[in-house]
Write a structure and sequence with these properties.
The complex is a heterodimer. By secondary structure, chain A is α/β, with parallel strands linked by helices. Helices cover about 25% and strands about 25% of the residues of chain A. Chain A folds into three domains: about 80 residues, SH3 type barrels, CATH 2.30.30.520; about 210 residues, Rossmann fold (3-Layer(aba) Sandwich); about 120 residues, Rossmann fold. In chain A, the strands form six sheets. In chain A, strands 9-6-10-12-13-14-17-18 form an eight-stranded mixed β-sheet, with helices on both faces. In chain A, strands 4-3-2-1-5 form a five-stranded antiparallel β-sheet, with no helix packed on it. The longest helix of chain A has 17 residues. Chain B has three domains: about 280 residues, no CATH class; about 150 residues, Gyrase A, domain 2; about 80 residues, no CATH class. Chain B contains 21 helices and 23 strands. In chain B, strands 1, 4, 6, 7, 8, 11, 12, 13, 20, 21 and 22 form an eleven-stranded mixed β-sheet that branches. In chain B, helix 16 packs across helix 18. The radius of gyration of chain B is 30 Å and the shape is globular. Classes of the chains: A alpha/beta, B alpha+beta. Chains A and B meet through strand 2, strand 3, strand 4 and helix 12 of A and strand 2, strand 4, strand 5, strand 6 and strand 7 of B. Strand 4 of chain A pairs antiparallel with strand 5 of chain B.
Chain lengths: ~475, ~675
C-alpha cells in the first residue's frame, strides 16, 4: 500500500478498501450510504487498526459515530469532504522575568495527549504552546521551557531513558533552572524516580516527576492539576530531591510529594494511586503552598551535582512463590545475569528447594539480595532458621528497600562498580536517597479497611 | 483562558434554525389555552422531544453496580472540578466553556452499595451490559428505526458535574423511524418521525447548587437509559404532551422500561419562525408540557421583537464591545434599597453596566411575570454564581427600588444617555467581572434574537437559563470501549418477538367498544396490562371499568402516596357483578375506591354490600318545603338513606319520586 493510499483509507483493510474504492470514497468524505439496515449520512472517519476489518465508521451530523458492516452496504455517494485537524490550541508561552525558570522534560504518557485514530487510543502531545493552550495557569507559576526527550508509554521506558534523563537533568542544573519537571507515564514512574534518585546525586534543585491517571482529553482529567502542582513544587518548592507529585486523595484537594525511592503505584486506575510505603510523604501541595511533612534535602544556590548514569542491565527480580523450583534461578545464572533481587515471603524467605541454586549463584559470582513481597516492613532473616540458612548462602538482606527500588539500585550499583562485588554489596546496603530508612514510623503503614465506623467518618471528611 | 479558547469554539449547526425566518412580530401575546392549531402554525411553532427512559436491567450499563436502588445514606464524599477539552474534530464546545467559567466545586455523595470506583471515574468502564443493548435494539425496532451494525460508544460532554467523568457514555442504536400519531390535534392520520435512539448511562441526582458548590448523589449514576429523539414534528402544545405520552407508551410496551417517578424524563426543543432551537430540560410530567412550550414560544417572539427594536436603532455587536461599566463605590450609600446597602456593608462590589441603545427594553415582558432584565439576571446567577437575591437591578424594571435621582447619578457614572439602558449588579469581588462580562455577552446575544440555550422548567410554566446549548462538538469517541458489532442473530431475535404497539392496542380497545379518545388514553396508561388481564367481553362493562380506572386510580395514588396496581383477581368480583347485572353501573367508581382503600376486606364482601336492591321505597311523610326542587332533593335523601351506591338506579328513583310528588321536571 503506498503512503498516499494508506492515508486515504487510514486504518481500513480489505474488504472495505475495495468497497470504498469502488464508490470513490476515502476517509473524510461526506457520504450517503444505502445499507440493508437503512440509509445513513455522515463523515467517513479513519478506522482504528486494532478494531475489526469489517466496519465503516461514520460520524453523523448529531456527532454520534456508528459502524456499518461492509456486507450491509449497497451503495455510497460522496456529497462532500471535510478533514478534521485535531490540534490543541497553541500559543507562545508568555515570559515574566520575575518568575523562576523551569524546564519540563517530556517522556510520553498521558499528561498531555490527543486522539490517535490509528490505534483508537490517546497518544501523547507535547509542546510549551500546547501546554499553555490547555493549562494556562502554568504561566502564573514560572517561565516554562519544554523539551521532548522521547515519546514512550511508561512500560517502554528503561535504562537508556534513565541515562538520557539523568544527563539532561545535569545540564539543566548547570543551565541554572530553578526546577525540573518530568512528564512520565504512571505505570513505571516509580522505577524511573528510583533510577534518577541514584543517578542524580545531591541535586541542588527540585526534580519532580508527574503524570496523570485520566488522560487530558477528559474533562475530569487529573493532568492539569498534577502539572500545576508539580510545576509549583519545581519552581517554588524548597525540597531538592527526586520526587513524584500526584493526587493525595481521589478528590481534587491536594497533591502529595513522594520521595523517589519510597513511592509505588498501588492501584491500576485510581487517581490517588501513588503512595509512600513504609514512611510518610515528603509534603503536601495545595493552592500555591507546600506543607512539609518531614525532613528533606533543601534547595541550594550552588550548581554542583554528580550525574552517575551507568547501569548494568543484566539484573532481575524473582518474585518468590511456594514450591518455586531452583531451575528458574539456575536459568538466570546460565543466561549471564549479574544480580538478582528476590521478593521473598514474610521476613525474607524462600523454600529449601531453591538453596542449591542460591549456592550456584554465589559460586558463579551472581549477587543475590533479599526484599519483601509484603512491601511494608523490614527483612529480618535472623528470626527463623530458614532466614539464617539463606543468609548462610550469601543472600544479602536489604532492610526495608522496596523490591523495584532494589532492582533499580542493583542495576545502578553494578554499573558503578562492574568488577568489584564487595563495593556493590556495600553500596547496596548503604542508604543514598532514603531507599532504606532506619526506622518505620507508626503511620508509615496505613492500609485501612472500609465500612469500619472510624474510616467511614474519616473518608466522609477527608475527601470533601 | 475561556476567552482564548472561545476563539476555537464551534459554529452552531444550522439544523437548529427554525425553517422559517419571518417572525410574526405583530402576533399578539396570548395566554395559554386561547390559541388554535392554525395560530401556532402562524407562529411557526415547532417542537421536538428527547425522551429518556430508564431500562429494566439488574446492573448499571458499564459496571456491575445494582441498577434502580435509591438511597439517602452517605458514606463518603468526593470533590472534583471539570475542564473543557477538544472535540474529536478539534473544536471546543460553547457549553463546556461556559461551565468552566462557573468555577464550580463539584461534590459527589457516595453510598457503599450503589456506587463503585467506575462511576467515580477511578476505574475504566467494564464491557457494556448486553441485556441493555438487546432491550435498546428491541425498542428501536418498535420505533421502526434503522439499526447500526456496530455500536460505537461515544463520550457526550457534560461539564455541569452531573457525571464525574465529565461526559456521558452513549451509543447510537438506530436512526430514521416513523410511528403513527393518532393523538395529534392536527388530525388522526399524522406521523411522528423519530430521529434516533441512543443507549446511555444516567447522570447523578442533584442535591443542591449553592454559589460555587454543587452537590450530587451518585446512586442513579450509570443506570442504563434510552434517549428517543423525535424530529420537530410537534406543531401544537397539545401535540407535545401527546407525543411524549406516545413515546413513553411505546417504550413501556416493550416491557423493558422502568416505571415509577423519575424513570422517565424529557427535554423539549422549541422554536418559532425566526428563532432557533432552545432546549427545556428534564420535564418529568407530560401534563405540564403544553403550558411550558406555549410560554417558551412567546418568550421567543418577545426576544425577536427586542431584536427588531435593536436593529431599528442600529445597535451592533461592535457597539456593545464599548459597553462602559463602572464600580460605584459609595455612590449609592444610603440609597434606601436594603439589598444594595447590605451588599455595601458586606464588601461586595456594586457595578453599573451601560447597554448602548437598550433604553426601555429591559422592562419588556418576555414570559408571564418576567421581563427582559430577568434574562440577564438568570445568566449572571448561573455563570457568576451570585446567590443572594436580588443581585441585579434595571432602571426600566426596578419596582421602585431606587429613586429617579439615584438613577440619574448612576447614569452619569457610566455616561449613559436617554437611548441607553443601565444595569446595576453587585456581588463578591471575585465574581463581579464574570457577572459584568456575562451581561455584555447576553446583550450581544439579543442581537441574534433567541440565544441557543438549555433552560430549566419552573413549576409556574416559565423557564430559566441553565446553560449554553451544547452542540455536536461535545461528542468524542470513547477510547476506553472497543466497538461492539451487532450480529444479525440479535436483530433476528428482536424481530421475531412481536409486541403490541400502543396504536395497535388502541385499535383493539376501540373494537372492544371504548370511544377513540378513551381507547388512546387506555393504550398509553400504566394500567393497560391490568385492564387486559380482566379480559372483559361485555362492551358496556368494558367501558365502565375503563372509565373507573382512569378516574379513580391516579386519585388513589395521589391521596395515598402509594403507587401500586391492584391484582386483577381483586377486581374480578366487581366485573362479574356488573356483567351479571347484580350491581347498578353507577356504583362502579365507589366500589373500585373501596377495593383500593380497604385491602383487608374481601373483594366479594365489598361488592355484595353494593348489590342491587329493588325493595320498594317507604311511603314519604309530608314534605317540609314547598319548593319543587328542594322537595325532590329532600325526597331523594329520605329514600336513599342507608342505601349503598350500586344498590339502586339513581335515575329511576329520581323519575319515580318526581312522578309520586306529581311534578315531572326536566
Amino acid at each position: 500500500m503506498t503512503e498516499q493510499r494508506a492515508d486515504a483509507y487510514k486504518g481500513y483493510r480489505e474488504p472495505l478498501v475495495s468497497l470504498m474504492a469502488r464508490f470513490g470514497i476515502t476517509v473524510w468524505c461526506k457520504v450517503d450510504v444505502d445499507t440493508t439496515r437503512g440509509e445513513f449520512s455522515g463523515l467517513v472517519l479513519p478506522r482504528s487498526e486494532t478494531a475489526d476489518a469489517h466496519h465503516l465508521v461514520l460520524k453523523l451530523d448529531s456527532g454520534y459515530n456508528v459502524g456499518l458492516r461492509h456486507d450491509t452496504i449497497r451503495a455510497m455517494t460522496k456529497t462532500g469532504f471535510r478533514e478534521a485537524i485535531y490540534k490543541v490550541p497553541e500559543e507562545a508561552f508568555p515570559r515574566d522575568d520575575r518568575l523562576p525558570e523551569v524546564i519540563l522534560l517530556g517522556t510520553g504518557g498521558t499528561i498531555a495527549s490527543r486522539l490517535d485514530y490509528r490505534t483508537g487510543a490517546v497518544i501523547p502531545a507535547f509542546s510549551p504552546g500546547e501546554l499553555y493552550g490547555s493549562v494556562p495557569e502554568l504561566a502564573d507559576l514560572c517561565n516554562l521551557q519544554t523539551e521532548k526527550l522521547f515519546g514512550e508509554f511508561s512500560e517502554n521506558v528503561g535504562p537508556l531513558h534513565y541515562r538520557a534523563l539523568a544527563e539532561r537533568i545535569g545540564q539543566a542544573i548547570e543551565q541554572g533552572f530553578a526546577g525540573v519537571v518530568i512528564g512520565h507515564g504512571t505505570d513505571t514512574m516509580h522505577h524511573t524516580a528510583a533510577a534518577l534518585s541514584f543517578m542524580v546525586q545531591r541535586p541542588p534543585i527540585p526534580i519532580v516527576m508527574v503524570g496523570s491517571q485520566r488522560s487530558s482529553d477528559r474533562p475530569s482529567s487529573d493532568a492539569a492539576r498534577n502539572l500545576i502542582h508539580a510545576t509549583f513544587a519545581a519552581a517554588h518548592g524548597d525540597i531538592a530531591e527526586v520526587m513524584v507529585c500526584m493526587f493525595g486523595p481521589t478528590s481534587d484537594r491536594y497533591n502529595l510529594l513522594h520521595r523517589g525511592t519510597r513511592v509505588r503505584k498501588m492501584h491500576s486506575s485510581y487517581r490517588s494511586t501513588f503512595r509512600t510505603l513504609g514512611d510518610i510523604p515528603l509534603a503536601m501541595v495545595e493552592d500555591g503552598a507546600i506543607q512539609s511533612l518531614q525532613t528533606c534535602a533543601s534547595r541550594r544556590d550552588d550548581r554542583t551535582v554528580q550525574i552517575r548514569p551507568e547501569f548494568e542491565e543484566r539484573v532481575t527480580i524473582l518474585y518468590y512463590y511456594p514450591n518455586m523450583n531452583p531451575d528458574i534461578l539456575e536459568a538466570v545464572v546460565d543466561r549471564g545475569y549479574r544480580g538478582v533481587v528476590i521478593a521473598g515471603t514474610g521476613l525474607g524467605h524462600v523454600n529449601r528447594k531453591v538453596y542449591p541454586a542460591l549456592e550456584r549463584a554465589r559460586s558463579a559470582g551472581v549477587q543475590v539480595y533479599m526484599t519483601l513481597q509484603t512491601l511494608w516492613g523490614f527483612v529480618q532473616m535472623n528470626v527463623y532458621e530458614t532466614g539464617r540458612e539463606i543468609l548462610g548462602l550469601g543472600v544479602i538482606p536489604l532492610a526495608n528497600m522496596l523490591p523495584e527500588v532494589a532492582y533499580i539500585k542493583l542495576g545502578w550499583a553494578l554499573g558503578q562498580h562492574p568488577n568489584d562485588p564487595a563495593a556493590v554489596a556495600a553500596l547496596m546496603q548503604t542508604p543514598l536517597a532514603g531507599e532504606i530508612t532506619e526506622r518505620e514510623p507508626h503511620d508509615g503503614y496505613l492500609v485501612f479497611q472500609g465500612r469500619t465506623p472510624e474510616i467511614d467518618e474519616f473518608l466522609g471528611r477527608i475527601w470533601s | 483562558m475561556v476567552d482564548r479558547l472561545s476563539a476555537r469554539a464551534s459554529e452552531l449547526p444550522n439544523t437548529d434554525l427554525n425553517p422559517r425566518d419571518d417572525p410574526p412580530l405583530d402576533f399578539p401575546d396570548r395566554e395559554f389555552g386561547s390559541l388554535t392549531a392554525s395560530d401556532y402554525a402562524e407562529l411557526g411553532f415547532q417542537c421536538g422531544l428527547e425522551v429518556h427512559q430508564q431500562l429494566h436491567t439488574a446492573r448499571k450499563l458499564f459496571c456491575r453496580c445494582p441498577a434502580g436502588r435509591f438511597v439517602t445514606r452517605t458514606d463518603a464524599t468526593v470533590l472534583r472540578h471539570m475542564r473543557p477539552t477538544l472535540s474529536e474534530l478539534g473544536e471546543y464546545d460553547g457549553c463546556a466553556l461556559m461551565e468552566f467559567k462557573t468555577r464550580k466545586e463539584i461534590v459527589y455523595l457516595l453510598e457503599h452499595g450503589t456506587v463503585c470506583t467506575y462511576e467515580l471515574d477511578d476505574t475504566p468502564p467494564f464491557p457494556i451490559d448486553e441485556v441493555a443493548v438487546r432491550h435498546a435494539l428491541r425498542i428501536s425496532r418498535m420505533f421502526d428505526l434503522q439499526l447500526v451494525s456496530e455500536l460505537q460508544v461515544m463520550r457526550k460532554q457534560y461539564l455541569d458535574g452531573s457525571i464525574p467523568t465529565g461526559f456521558q457514555r452513549t451509543a447510537l442504536i438506530g436512526i430514521g423511524g416513523t410511528i403513527p400519531f393518532h393523538d395529534s390535534e392536527l388530525g388522526d392520520d399524522q406521523v411522528l418521525r423519530i430521529r434516533q435512539l441512543t443507549l446511555e448511562e444516567d447522570s447523578c441526582r442533584e442535591v443542591s447548587d449553592i454559589g460555587h458548590r454543587i452537590t450530587f448523589r451518585t446512586d442513579r449514576l450509570g443506570m442504563p437509559l434510552v434517549e428517543t429523539v423525535t424530529e420537530p414534528d410537534l406543531r401544537t402544545p397539545h401535540d407535545v404532551a401527546a407525543g411524549g405520552r406516545l413515546i413513553a407508551a411505546v417504550a413501556r410496551a416493550s416491557g423493558h422500561a422502568r416505571r415509577g417517578s423519575g424513570s422517565g424524563r424529557q427535554d423539549v426543543n422549541v422554536s418559532i419562525a425566526g428563532s432557533r432551537r432552545v432546549e427545556l430540560k428534564g420535564v418529568g410530567r407530560h401534563a405540564v408540557l403544553p403550558r411550558l412550550v406555549h410560554n417558551e414560544a412567546f418568550r421567543h417572539l418577545n426576544l425577536l421583537r427586542i431584536r427588531a427594536a435593536l436593529r431599528e436603532r442600529g445597535i451592533t455587536a461592535d457597539l456593545l464591545d464599548g459597553c462602559l461599566h463602572a464600580d460605584l463605590g459609595g455612590l449609592l450609600a444610603g440609597c434606601g434599597f436594603a439589598p444594595i446597602e447590605r451588599a455595601a456593608r458586606d464588601g461586595s462590589v456594586l457595578r453599573a453596566v451601560r447597554l448602548p441603545g437598550f433604553g426601555t427594553l429591559l422592562g419588556h415582558r418576555t414570559q408571564p411575570g418576567r421581563t427582559f432584565a430577568h434574562e440577564f439576571a438568570e445568566r449572571v446567577r448561573v455563570i457568576a454564581c451570585l446567590t443572594t437575591r436580588p443581585f441585579l437591578l434595571a432602571e426600566d424594571d426596578d419596582g421602585g427600588a431606587l429613586a429617579a435621582a439615584r438613577w440619574r447619578e448612576v447614569r452619569m457614572a457610566v455616561r449613559a444617555d436617554a437611548e441607553d439602558a443601565v444595569l446595576l449588579v453587585w456581588g463578591p469581588r471575585e465574581d463581579i467581572d464574570t457577572a459584568s462580562h456575562e451581561i455584555v455577552l447576553r446583550a450581544k446575544a439579543a442581537l441574534v434574537g433567541v440565544p441557543s440555550e438549555t433552560r430549566q422548567a419552573h413549576p409556574d410554566g416559565t423557564t430559566g437559563f441553565e446553560r449554553i446549548l451544547p452542540g455536536p462538538q461535545r461528542m468524542y469517541p470513547d477510547t476506553d470501549t472497543p466497538p461492539l458489532p451487532i450480529p444479525d442473530a440479535w436483530v433476528a431475535e428482536v424481530e421475531s418477538r412481536t409486541v403490541e404497539l400502543p396504536w395497535q392496542r388502541r385499535a383493539r380497545y376501540i373494537a372492544k367498544g371504548l370511544p377513540a379518545p378513551a381507547a388512546r388514553r387506555m393504550a398509553h396508561s400504566t394500567w393497560a396490562e391490568l385492564y387486559d388481564e380482566l379480559a372483559i367481553e361485555d362492551p358496556p362493562t368494558a367501558r365502565r371499568i375503563a372509565f373507573a380506572l382512569e378516574a379513580r386510580l391516579p386519585h388513589f395514588w395521589r391521596s395515598s402516596g402509594v403507587r401500586t396496581l391492584p391484582a386483577a383477581e381483586r377486581l374480578r368480583p366487581l366485573v362479574r357483578a356488573l356483567v351479571e347485572g347484580r350491581m347498578h353501573p353507577s356504583g362502579t367508581n365507589w366500589v373500585l375506591d373501596r377495593l383500593l382503600r380497604e385491602p383487608d376486606t374481601a373483594a366479594s364482601d365489598i361488592v355484595d354490600a353494593h348489590r342491587l336492591d329493588d325493595r320498594p321505597a317507604d311511603p314519604l311523610p309530608a314534605s317540609p318545603t314547598t319548593d319543587a326542587n328542594a322537595r325532590l332533593r329532600w325526597a331523594m335523601g329520605r329514600t336513599l338513606r342507608g342505601r349503598t351506591r350500586g344498590s339502586f338506579d339513581p335515575q329511576q328513583i329520581r323519575t319515580d319520586l318526581s312522578h309520586s310528588l306529581g311534578e315531572v321536571r326536566e
